Amino acid sequence: MAGVGGLMSLWLFGCEDGPRPAPFPERSAPPPEEPLPRPARRYILENSGDRCAVRWEQAGQKSVLHEVRCPRDVLDGESVRLTGRVCMRDSADETRRAPTRCPKELLYLEGADQTGGKRYPDYLLPPAK
């Protein structure tokens, strides 16, 4: 019974005589991450009114235009550019300049360019080197 009383007092009053645990080492803030570099090549879908076309731009160079079906939500005179993993709509109307759903033709152009044309339509193949 004395053992139960000793355990009860230990539970009630804690263990004051024992050594205290070492404090946690202070965490230093992680070093600031450098922003990821922007992709050198930009992929763009343009609606010129009578047709739509996709192309890429890199360091002032532009690829050949590939005519594609116009997405319903891209109006005349607007363009959509693939920026990383997001597509941005460029328009003369300020209210329509915003992130938007990426048209599949734009994603196909990027994919065809990065994979050498595997699994993508022939008209989006990069030029032969």
Description of the structure:
This protein is of the alpha+beta class. Strands 1, 2, 3, 4, 5, 6 and 7 form a seven-stranded antiparallel beta sheet that branches. The chain has two helices and seven strands; from the N terminus they run αβββββββα. The protein is 19% helix and 23% strand.
So how many helices?
2
Shape by Cα distribution: elongated
How many DSSP E strands? 7
In percent, how helical is the residue content? 10-25%
Characterize the largest beta sheet: strand count, sense, and whether it forms a barrel: 7 strands, antiparallel
Radius of gyration: 30 Å
Kindly estimate the percentage of residues that lie in beta strands according to DSSP: 15-25%
Structural class, from helix and strand content?
Answer: alpha+beta
What is the H-and-E element order? HEEEEEEEH
Low-confidence stretches: none
Mean pLDDT: 77
Measured distance between first and last alpha carbons:
90 Å
Summary keywords:
129 residues
Structure at a glance:
This protein is an alpha+beta fold and 129 residues long. It has 2 helices and 7 strands, in the order αβββββββα. It starts with a helix and ends in a 14-residue tail after the last helix.
Present the secondary structure layout.
Blueprint: H1 2-13, E1 42-47, E2 52-58, E3 61-62, E4 66-68, E5 79-83, E6 86-90, E7 99-100, H2 104-115
Antiparallel strand pairs: 1-2, 1-5, 2-3, 2-4, 5-6, 6-7
